């Protein structure tokens, strides 16, 4: 029966959409295990990959929403730096770490709010707005830090961030928690459904009673919050706030979202895919360090892998 | 053109049409939407290939024309959506594709002084007092149209086809267009003039050919006929089944929906008021652009209104956005459903549940959780009600046939269970078989006490479904007929008659 056949083909492409990125991740891990078995089969390896991927995954989770509404957020790297710097300044001036962290995340939300307001009020594409705010936020970071690094955080903060629970670093737990909350948001809330609708067809969304500006604003605030949390994790990992921190991180965040199957045209993508995309990038980075690929060559390999994986995805998805 | 037939898969768009154009005449092409005027025009311009028949230009016979043949043999088409290039100058627009060139060393460059010299001459013929170097984007619509005519002249066209050239012109602009057309006639050009406005046709036309449902009705000399004759030629198709309750009168029924003094800033809707009684289906007729859909968009809050009050069951409601309209019990099945009704990334159930989810949520539509049981139930209800053919509500809408997609979108609006439902071209894109299902559905909704408003360009549809038909012209309701008084003749007359002859 023809309908039967159609169902079967559909399930194949759906299976790829659901598990394709997981497949790539497993494949990469297998390659690594074969090439460097002695290093690979150690718990510290997993810990290291998780810890290194957390910042990127956190940023990518926010970036995912910006891409989901057929937009983009190029300012995330600068938001990480500015909210991190703000937090660091607060901590070294004696604010309790927990208060500093919350205010830092709030700063991320505020910067995202500014992005959202600018996109809504000018009607310009988010690419242009966030290209501008990327420079502005970075500039403000340089101004408030007087272009120098801030360090010497309270021991309680550094100790907390360096903790591991069952070999899982705190950074990874934060990223996983954020992913779970956002997965709930996308799958189970009307807000999430509306954001997909907005990304799929703006005009239809408007006629269906979806408040486009409100949802756009929320999306940029989510992106800002995620970048703010990434700022916290980065401070914990590096132990200092650098004015040039997270420069270019938006590229990796966009790559993680796209590798994870998020459509650049909006309306399609899943949080699970973004996490997989972030892990794939993490594993590639880790693997290249393990295989002592020079850092300059790493850039080339990373770029090629981004193009390659997305092409492969389109190719397989296009087979139906 | 002789015996031209054009078949599209499943439809015969033109059925043996013969049509001739003499030098120095204005030949009017008249017919309702879907009569085959555009198809005929597209065959002449080489966009479509006729299924059979021949086209004879100056004694040379063609089985079909390519766009190049059409252009080379002196046929120019001025579409309603003008095709001038805004970024270029007037002169460049006139000669685009064959710009005069000059040698500059080893390079061949565009000869701007030659362009301007030749453009000036042509602009004089069409009466456009502008420097050829002016960018086209600075021009008004009527000036752009003059540039289009000038472009046809620059190509040395013998036949110029104008598709509803007066649709977006003011009265004085129409007068100057007619002056240009008379000058072109004197120069021996043949003009094909497509318009719905009968008054204009009587003024400028020499002969008229009427098409109906792809068939040829007849060709007449304008001097031999009256406006009423034209209307009779355009209509007169057999009347289909009726869905009205003949015994009912709505005068004594309560008013469930009322619009008072609605206007739009862009003047597309001017001071419109109407009432809808319980059980009544109110239809809106009029030409495209006469303000019907524009009014509905304003009522629904999708486009801004400058003034006006809206009442449901006697209580005033505010519709500043579709969200507030939906919340207050309105729904609108939009005309361009693919663009404004449809989520290609959603499955059937998700598409249908967008509306009820938004309607039942607070805080601007953002609060609340997705209830998959409700979602499945809504989808099943609409699937059954509208007979949507699919193997599962989890199927992506992009995999459905066009007609089924339309039904999903209808289902989306019905699922909101709104008090007042606006249907803008309810059966557009829906096959003949399903049309009657939708008409019965509309009647059932009205009988259940819902308010049903219908905008349609298909007169037979309005006549067989609506209890009352309001006719729009130039942003106003000019006439309201009960379905007993309404005929295709008097509706067309009301929607096309010119202001002057009403007095």
Outline the structure in words.
The complex is a heterodimer of chains A (320) and B (503). Chain A is mainly α. Chain A has one domain: ABC transporter involved in vitamin B12 uptake, BtuC. Chain A is built from 14 helices and four strands. In chain A, β2 (164-165) and β3 form a beta hairpin. In chain A, α3 (43-68) crosses α13 (271-290) and α12 packs across α13. Chain A is globular, with a radius of gyration of 20 Å. Chain A starts with a helix and ends with a helix. With 503 residues, chain B is an alpha/beta fold. Helices cover 34% and strands 24% of the residues of chain B. Chain B contains 17 helices and 22 strands. Chain B has a six-stranded mixed sheet with strand order 6-9-10-3-11-12, sandwiched between helices. Chain B has a six-stranded mixed sheet with strand order 18-19-20-15-21-22, sandwiched between helices. Chain B has a four-stranded antiparallel sheet with strand order 2-1-4-5, with helices on one face. In chain B, β13 (255-263) and β14 form a beta hairpin. In chain B, α8 (227-234) crosses α17 (488-496). The interface between A and B is medium-sized, with 31 and 35 residues.
Average of pLDDT of chain B = 84
Radius of gyration of chain A: 20 Å
SS strand fraction of chain B: 15-25%
Largest sheet of chain A: 2 strands, antiparallel
What are the secondary-structure elements of chain A, in order, as H or E? HHHHHHEHEEHHHHEHHH
Class of secondary structure makeup of chain A:
mainly alpha
Structural class of chain B comes to alpha/beta
Largest beta sheet: strand ordering of chain A: 1-4
Helix run count of chain A:
14
Helix content of chain A: over 70%
Percent range for β-strand residues of chain A: under 5%
Q: Which residues of chain A sit in consecutive blocks of at least 5 with pLDDT less than 50? A: 1-8
**Annotated CATH architecture of chain A:** Orthogonal Bundle
- CATH fold-level topology of chain A: ABC transporter involved in vitamin B12 uptake, BtuC
Q: Which two chains share the most extensive interface?
A: A-B, 31 and 35 residues
């Amino acid at each position: 029966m023809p309908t039967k056949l159609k169902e079967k083909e559909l399930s194949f492409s759906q299976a790829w959409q659901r598990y394709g990125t997981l497949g790539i991740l497993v494949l990469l891990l297998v390659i690594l295990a074969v090439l460097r078995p002695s290093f690979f089969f150690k718990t510290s390896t997993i810990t290291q990959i998780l810890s290194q991927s957390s910042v990127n995954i956190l940023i990518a989770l926010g970036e995912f929403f910006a891409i989901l509404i057929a937009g983009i957020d190029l300012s995330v790297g600068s938001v990480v730096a500015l909210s991190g710097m703000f937090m660091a300044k607060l901590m070294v001036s004696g604010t309790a770490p927990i208060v500093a962290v919350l205010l830092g995340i709030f700063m991320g939300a505020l910067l995202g709010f500014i992005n959202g307001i600018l996109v809504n009020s000018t009607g310009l594409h988010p690419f242009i707005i966030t290209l501008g705010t990327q420079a502005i936020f970075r500039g403000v970071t340089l101004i408030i830090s007087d272009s120098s690094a801030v360090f010497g955080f309270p021991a309680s903060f550094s100790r907390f961030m360096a903790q591991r629970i069952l070999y899982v670093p705190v950074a990874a737990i934060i990223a996983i928690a954020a992913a779970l909350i956002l997965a709930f948001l996308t799958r189970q809330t009307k807000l999430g459904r509306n954001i997909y609708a907005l990304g799929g067809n703006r005009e239809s969304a408007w006629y269906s009673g979806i408040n486009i500006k409100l949802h756009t604003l929320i999306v940029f605030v989510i992106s800002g919050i995620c970048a703010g949390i990434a700022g916290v994790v980065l401070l914990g990992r590096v132990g200092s706030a650098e004015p040039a921190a997270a420069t270019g991180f938006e590229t990796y965040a966009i790559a993680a979202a796209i590798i994870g199957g998020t459509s650049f045209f909006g309306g399609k993508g899943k949080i699970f895919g973004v996490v997989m995309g972030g892990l794939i990038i993490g594993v590639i980075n880790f693997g290249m360090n393990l295989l002592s690929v020079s850092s300059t060559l790493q850039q080339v390999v990373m770029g090629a892998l981004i193009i390659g994986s997305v092409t492969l995805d389109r190719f397989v998805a296009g087979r139906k | 053109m002789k015996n031209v037939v054009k078949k599209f898969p499943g439809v015969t768009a033109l059925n043996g049409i013969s049509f001739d154009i003499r030098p120095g005449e204005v030949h009017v092409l008249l017919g309702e939407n879907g009569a085959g005027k555009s198809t005929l025009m597209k065959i002449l311009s080489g966009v479509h290939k006729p299924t059979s028949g021949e086209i004879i230009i100056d004694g040379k016979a063609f089985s079909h024309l390519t766009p190049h043949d059409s252009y080379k043999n002196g046929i120019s088409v001025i579409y309603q959506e003008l095709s001038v290039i805004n970024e270029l100058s007037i002169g460049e627009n006139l000669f685009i594709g064959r710009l005069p060139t000059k040698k500059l060393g080893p390079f061949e460059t565009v000869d701007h002084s030659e362009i301007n010299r030749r453009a000036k001459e042509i602009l004089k013929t069409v009466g456009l007092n502008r420097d050829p170097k002016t960018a086209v984007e600075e021009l008004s619509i009527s000036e752009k149209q003059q540039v289009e005519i000038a472009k046809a002249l620059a190509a040395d066209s013998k036949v110029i086809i104008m598709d509803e050239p007066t649709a977006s012109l003011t009265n004085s602009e129409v007068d100057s267009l007619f002056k240009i057309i008379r000058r072109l006639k004197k120069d021996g050009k043949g003009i094909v003039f497509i318009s719905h406005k009968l008054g204009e046709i009587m003024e400028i036309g020499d002969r008229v050919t009427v098409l109906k449902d792809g068939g040829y009705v007849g060709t007449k000399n304008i001097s031999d006929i009256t406006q009423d004759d034209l209307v009779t030629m355009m209509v007169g198709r057999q009347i289909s089944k009726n869905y009205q309750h003949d015994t009912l009168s709505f005068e004594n029924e309560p008013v469930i929906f009322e619009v008072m003094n609605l206007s739009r800033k862009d003047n597309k809707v001017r001071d419109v008021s109407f009432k809808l009684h319980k059980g009544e289906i109110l239809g809106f007729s009029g030409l495209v652009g006469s303000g019907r859909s524009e009014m509905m968009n304003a009522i629904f809050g999708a486009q801004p209104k400058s003034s006006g009050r809206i009442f449901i069951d006697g209580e005033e409601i505010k519709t500043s956005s579709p969200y507030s309209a939906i919340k207050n019990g309105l729904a609108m099945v939009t005309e361009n459903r693919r663009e404004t009704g449809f989520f290609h990334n959603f499955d059937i159930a998700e598409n249908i549940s967008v509306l009820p989810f938004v309607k039942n949520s607070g805080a601007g539509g953002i609060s609340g959780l997705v209830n998959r049981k409700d979602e499945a139930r809504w989808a099943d209800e609409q699937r059954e009600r509208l007979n949507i053919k699919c193997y599962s509500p989890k199927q992506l809408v992009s995999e459905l046939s066009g007609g089924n997609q339309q039904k999903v979108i209808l289902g989306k609006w019905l699922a909101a269970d709104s008090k007042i439902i606006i249907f803008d071209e309810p059966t557009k894109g829906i096959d003949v078989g399903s049309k009657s299902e939708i008409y019965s559905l509309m009647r059932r909704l009205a009988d259940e006490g819902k308010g049903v408003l219908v905008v349609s360009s298909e007169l037979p549809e309005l006549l067989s479904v609506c209890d009352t038909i309001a006719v729009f012209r130039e942003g106003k309701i000019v006439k309201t007929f009960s379905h007993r008084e309404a005929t295709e003749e008097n509706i067309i007359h009301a929607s096309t008659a010119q202001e002057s002859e009403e007095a």
